[in-house]
Specification:
Blueprint (H helix, E strand, L loop, with lengths): L6 H20 L3 H12 L2 H23 L5 H28 L1 H21 L10 H18 L3 H8 L6 H25 L5 H26 L4 H20 L1
Helix pairs in contact: 1-2, 1-9, 2-3, 2-10, 3-8, 3-9, 4-5, 4-6, 4-8, 5-10, 6-7, 7-8
């Protein structure tokens, strides 16, 4: 099957390249940038489906290298919250997305701005033991936002990165949460018949850009301090949120 590289497809390829470059460099941000960018050019439900498929590749690449370090005992309450509330977020998106697209787009913008402000001002919490209710709350928030917008990151990162774990264990554990959220949401989409042939064809065109972006981001991160880049990235995400609200 052949497909013309129209402007929408080229835009998606560029968006996924930049989103995965950011992800490879900083370890976060692919979903936020991709969903926001794709929503500027099309319908939000379609944007989250493409991002869900891309996230499966991106997160699997990271988790595949670190899975042995995963602290599963700390993740049980988180994954329980995701399992219960991810379908809630997806159902809300499917109900309000087609009928109230402007409202959903502005809600997405507010969520992104909130994430950006929290990340810019929040100080890294001191490691301390976490109890089930806190992990469950993180899973609930991450599940709803992951189901609706494929943006579970900040809630899950806030929980995992406050645990008394080594660096690789933190990275492995947070990516285990991302992967569970991504796979679980994808199963729901497949069951509902939302993963259609046109979606898969469009996604297939974007796969090289995803691998290239992640690979380049990982290479650049080896010799460069990422802290300032992370700060600039969150400022850019906040501006994208403002664009979504004003659009």
């Amino acid at each position: 099957m052949t497909m013309d590289l129209d402007s929408a497809l080229i835009s998606a390829m560029v968006i996924f390249f930049v989103a995965n470059l950011i992800q490879g460099f900083t370890g976060f941000g692919m979903g936020i940038f991709a969903v926001t960018g794709l929503t500027l050019f099309g319908e939000i439900v379609h944007a989250t489906i493409l991002t869900n498929l891309a996230g499966l590749i991106t997160v699997s690449m990271v988790f595949g290298r670190l899975w042995r370090h995963t602290s599963w005992r700390h993740l049980l309450p988180v994954m329980l919250g995701i399992a219960v509330f991810n379908p809630v977020g997806l159902a809300l998106l499917k109900y309000f997305g087609p009928t109230h697209p402007d409202t959903v787009r502005r809600a997405l913008g507010l969520v992104i701005i909130g994430f950006a402000l929290w990340s810019l001002w929040n100080k890294t919490p001191k490691p301390r033991a976490r109890i089930w209710p806190i992990g469950l709350a993180a899973g609930m928030v991450g599940g709803i936002l992951g189901g609706a917008f494929t943006m579970s990151g900040p809630a899950l990162v806030a929980y995992v990165y406050s645990l008394p774990l080594e660096r690789d264990a933190m990275k492995a554990s947070v990516n285990a949460c991302f992967l569970f959220n991504c796979v679980y949401r994808l199963i729901q989409l497949v069951s509902a018949g939302d993963i259609t042939r046109p979606v898969l064809v469009q996604f297939a065109w974007c796969v090289p850009a995803i691998f290239l972006g992640v690979g380049l981001g990982l290479v650049l991160a080896r010799g460069v301090s990422t802290e300032r880049f992370r700060r600039y990235a969150w400022i850019a995400f906040g501006l994208l949120g403002l664009i979504l609200i004003a659009r």
